[in-house]
TrEMBL record:
It is found in: Cytoplasm. It catalyses: 4 Fe(2+) + O2 + 6 H2O = 4 iron(III) oxide-hydroxide + 12 H(+). The lineage of its organism: Bacteria, Pseudomonadati, Bacteroidota, Bacteroidia, Marinilabiliales. Fe cation binds at residues 17, 50, 53, 94, 127. The keyword Oxidoreductase applies. This is Ferritin. GO terms for biological process: intracellular iron ion homeostasis; iron ion transport. Residues 1-145 form the Ferritin-like diiron domain. Keywords: Cytoplasm, Iron, Iron storage, Metal-binding, Oxidoreductase.
Amino acid sequence: MLKEKMLAALNEQINAEQYSALLYLSMSANLNDMGLPGFANWMYVQYQEELSHANKFYNYVVERGGKVQLKAIEQVPTKWEGVIDIYKATLEHEQKVTDLINSLVDVAIEERDHATQSFLRWFVDEQVEEEANVTEILDTLKLINGQGNGIFMLDREMRSRTFVDTTAAQ
Ligand code: FEO
């Protein structure tokens, strides 16, 4: 059985992951609008990943006999200056998510909830990968200054990303 504080924190995280999903869907729409279908695809896959994260938390709470409580999702931004701005915002957002995951681990340690600590390990590792991937794209975007032939080539590369549900692996 999940303790009250742990359950509340996990429910908050379901909301945070759902917010992340909508944030990336909004970014995907903007990237399409900017004439960058490859980047829009990459961001759409990011949206699908975030939904799978929310569902992973949802299923864990249910599995532990906790009551899922869905709350209203905060309005996401709807406009950005350009593709560099979008990836800067993505990196900042993922850094915030990393903080949230670390805080969840802190609660699990406080509550001596070893099962939740073990469950959260997947997310700790996932955040390392998320931050590294976005940093790499952002660095490349800065190098080509987000324009010219470079952006055209990079956009083509971004088309190949497909959604693979890795959350079931645990
Ligand atoms: Fe669900 Fe991008 O962290």
